[in-house]
Amino acid sequence: MKIAVLGSGHGGVAMSADLALSGYDVSLAAVEEHSVNIKLLRSLDGIKIEGFTSSGKTPQFTKPKVITEDVPFVLKDADIIMVIVPSFAQSVYTDLIIKHGKINALVLFPCGGFSALEFRNKLKILNRENDFIACETSSFIYTTKITGPGKVLIKGIKDNVYFAAAPSERTGEALSVINQIYPQFKKVHNVWQTSFSNPSAVLHTIPTLLNMSRIEQMGPYRYSHYDITPCIGKIMEAVDRERVEIAKHLFPNPPSFLETMCKIYNLQAENIYQAVKSVNAYNIQFSPDGMKHRYVTEDIPYSLVPIATIGKELGIDTHNMDAVINIACMANGENYWLTGRNAQKIGFEAKPKIKTENLVLAL
Amino acid sequence: MKIAVLGSGHGGVAMSADLALSGYDVSLAAVEEHSVNIKLLRSLDGIKIEGFTSSGKTPQFTKPKVITEDVPFVLKDADIIMVIVPSFAQSVYTDLIIKHGKINALVLFPCGGFSALEFRNKLKILNRENDFIACETSSFIYTTKITGPGKVLIKGIKDNVYFAAAPSERTGEALSVINQIYPQFKKVHNVWQTSFSNPSAVLHTIPTLLNMSRIEQMGPYRYSHYDITPCIGKIMEAVDRERVEIAKHLFPNPPSFLETMCKIYNLQAENIYQAVKSVNAYNIQFSPDGMKHRYVTEDIPYSLVPIATIGKELGIDTHNMDAVINIACMANGENYWLTGRNAQKIGFEAKPKIKTENLVLAL
User: Fold this and answer.
1) β partners of residue B67
2) Domain assignments of chain B as residue spans, ordered by start
3) Is B353 helix (H, G, I), strand (E, B) or coil?
4) Taking CB atoms and an 8 Å cutoff, what residues of chain A touch B324?
C-alpha cells in the first residue's frame, strides 16, 4: 500500500514522517511553487519527529521514501493520497490527482471545509465520479508545529476523528483501508457531517472580526479564549442557529456549537461565551495578526460561505451568517461569495428548487 | 415669542439657560419620569452657565421663566418648541405636542435622525400635517457637558448648522423666525439632507461594533480617533457608498462621509481611515462602555435603520449596511429593523414601487 502525502507545511511533514516511522511506503510531495520546505528536507535527507508518534515508537529522525516536487510521479501509483494543504491551495493538487492519480485511489481531505464535495463535483463534471474515493475527516488528526529546520513537533494525536466518504455508500470500504493506518477515524453519516462538524466556521471567524480594532492595532498579541465577550457569544449563537437549521437537511441530529464544545471538553455551560471561557486549552493563545489571517481568509470562504450558500439553496434564512461574511468581504475588499467555495462549486442545488434569493451579492 | 425647551439632559439645560440669558421667554420642561434634573434645577432656582454664551454675555447664573414637569402647560402657548431628547424618548414628547401644542408652532428636532419626518408622519396619519412646522438641524448647535449640580458647561457653539423644515416649502418661513435666535442655522434642501448629513450613522456605529471585544472587556477606556483601523475604514467606506447612493434620490449632490470630514475639519485625506486619524478633536476620547451605548442603541435604530429601509424602498442594494445593522441586532438581541425608525414609521414609500426585498428580517 503506497501513500502519497501532498503538501509541505507542518501537517504534511508531520504526517509523512510519522507514517514513515510506522513503516509505511510513504512519499512527500509538493508542487514547485510550494517546495521550499521540500528542498530543505531533501537536503537534510529526512525529518526529525519530536513529541508523539502514532505507532508508539520513540520519536526520531526518519525519512519518507521519496521527498519530491514531482507530484505526478508520486501520484501515479499511490493507493492513498493525503491532501494536506490549506483549502485555497487544494485545487492545484486536485487537478493533478485527476490527471495523474491511480484509478480507485482513496483521496483524503483532512479538515472538513467541503473539500471532498468540491473534489467530487470536479469529478462529476468530467463524468469520472467513480474514479477516486473522495474522503474527509472533520479535523486534522495531528496537532503539530514546525520547531526548526527539518524538525516537527507532534503535540498530540486525536482520539476520535469523524470520517466519511462521498458518496457515503463507500465510507465502509474506505474506512476498512484507512483504519489500518488510523484506527481513530470513526464513521459518520456523510461528508456533510464532517464539514459541518468543524467548529472553525463559528469559533474562528466571529471573535476575530469583532476584535478587528485591537487585532489590527496590536496583533499578533497574547490573548486568551479568543478574547470572546458576552455579546460576541450571542452573535456566535445567532449564526450557529442558522448553521444547525441548514445541517438538519443534510444529516440527522446535528449538534449545536455549544453542545459540541460541551462534549469535546466535558463542560457544563449555559451559553457559548461561558463554554469558550471554560476551555483550559484556550488559556494562552496568540491572536491573529490581522484580517488576512486564515481565521478570516480561509474560514470565511471555505466554511461560512459554503454553509450560507447551501442554506440559500435550501430556502433557509441566513441573514446572520450573511452579516458576518459581508463584514469580512468589506474588510478585505474581496467578494468571498464568489471567490469562496459556494454551493455552485460543490455542485449543490436544492431539489425541489425553493431558493428565493440571489446567491451572489455584488460587493 | 415664547420658547419651550423639552428635555432635562445637558442639551436642554444648556439651551434653556443660554436662551434665558439672551432675554427670551423660555420654559424648560420634562415629563415626570425624566424629571430628576428638573426638580433639582427648580430647587436651585436656576442654572449656572460656564464657557460660552450665544449672546456674548458673560456666562453666569440664570433662570428660565418656568422649570416644570408640566409639559402640557408650557406647550399650550409656546411659539417655538425645542425637542432636546434622545431619539428613543421623542415619541412621548411628540404625542404631547400633538395633543397640547399651539397650532402653527415651530417644532425643532436638533440632531437629524429622521425625527422631523417621523413627527410629520404622525401628523399626516391624524390629517393634521399643517398644524405644526416640523424642523430639523443636522447636529445640535451646542457642545455641552453637565459639570455639577445645576452647572452646565457650553464648550462651543457651532457656526454652520444645516436647517430645513418638512415640507421644505416652509423652510424659509421657519428660518425667518428661528434665525432671530440662531443666525448660525443655514437653509438646506430638505430634512432628508439634515438627517443624512449627521455623520454618526457611519462614524459611531462601525468602529464601535468592530471593537466589540475590547469595549466589552475594558470600556469605557481612554482611546483616540475611535480606535479606527484600515479595515474598519474600508467597511465605513463600503457602507457610506450605499448611504450616498440612497441620498442621491433625496437631495442633490450628497457628499460622501470622507468629503464631509475633509470639509468640516479642513483635511486632505485619501480615505476615511486617514481622515479620522487626522482630526485633532479625536485625540483624546473615552470609548463606549458596552454595546448598549447610544453609539449602538441610538445610531443603529435611528440612523442606519431608516437609511437602509429607505434604500430598500428605493430598490437600492444595502447589503453592507444590513450587515452592520444585523451585527448590532445579534449583539443586543433586539430587532432594530422593527424597533428602530424604519421607512414605514417615517411614512416613506417609493413611488413607483420598486422594492424587491422584505423590509423586515426576522431576528
Assistant:
1) B28
2) 2-196, 200-339
3) coil
4) 323, 327
